[in-house]
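During the reporting period the student researcher (J.K.) took over the structure-prediction task from the postdoctoral fellow and processed the backlog of single-chain submissions. One of the processed entries is reproduced below for the supervisory committee.
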Amino acid sequence: MTCLYELLDISQVYAGKVVLDIPELRIEKGKIVGITGPNGSGKSTLLRILAFLEKPATGTLRFKGIPVAEPTGEHRRLATMLLQESRLLKRSVFDNVAFGLKARRQRERIPSRVFEALEMVGLDPSDFASRSWFELSGGESQRVALASRLILNPEVLVLDEPTASVDSQSSTIIRSVILETREKLGTTVITVSHDLDWAYGASDEVISMFSGKILSRGPENIIHGPWTRSEDGTLLKKLDDGQIITASSFPGSSKTGALDPEDIIISTGTTEKISARNAIKGTVTRMNLENGSNRVLVTMAAGGQVFSARITSGSLGKLGFLPGSEVTIIFKATAIKWI
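J.K. obtained the following structure tokens:
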């Protein structure tokens, strides 16, 4: 695959505070990349840099192998961004979708292209094209906004929480549109989402962020303090239900732990002979088949803490659990890393 974006030692600073610090990131052409993380983790800042809407404070950004010293209008023609709540122009649906073409002086086949874009997002042109902006539901408005981006045939589609404020039908349609856009047009899609079900169902790869840094290329379990030190030097975190998580000592000042889903074993049987320090009783809350693989991301809840683990479809068949099943979440104390 061709490398579309390459970021080296990228940082961004707002009011003297470093909000983004990325030593290295590469995004391949034609990929669908999801970005997840808590509020304030730097997701939207990264999106704005990738959409050429702002310049990083330091570092090198390469697009198609060429350094981008100053983002230009030409860069922004290649990458278009859809915000969480995109505001439509106070005019008809047709005029909203056609606006970008007219602004770029691309006047060939405007009516047919508008109708094709509306059909792509599941809106019947004969019903919606003549509607005014205020006659749309939240989900319909977001789909019109998406159509106004798709009609431009961007090389990169950048989406910031595209399904955060839409109904389930619109969320499903937006996911299908993203997959279809990549398959038909080869569009690279970069999307931020708090909805893990949606992100893992739509993306080829998911990046986890925390405190302005890329934590992993995939999901990560974040375990916040407080932690207390035990007599043997290990650290203990008490969950809401009284269960205890045990971790190795802090290597520095950080008091936030990260646990790789690959380091978790899920058990449905007895745990008497398990040597790992942590065997936490929990409940399966959801299971997601990761896009393009035979692996399943299993999310579990235990005493107010959420855990994610990755297993194969074959292992899931053998274990036989479902959402609502009681399981044991097993991992070593040394598996918790400090961030």
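The committee noted the following: The chain is about 25% helix and 35% strand.
J.K. will present the remaining backlog at the next meeting.
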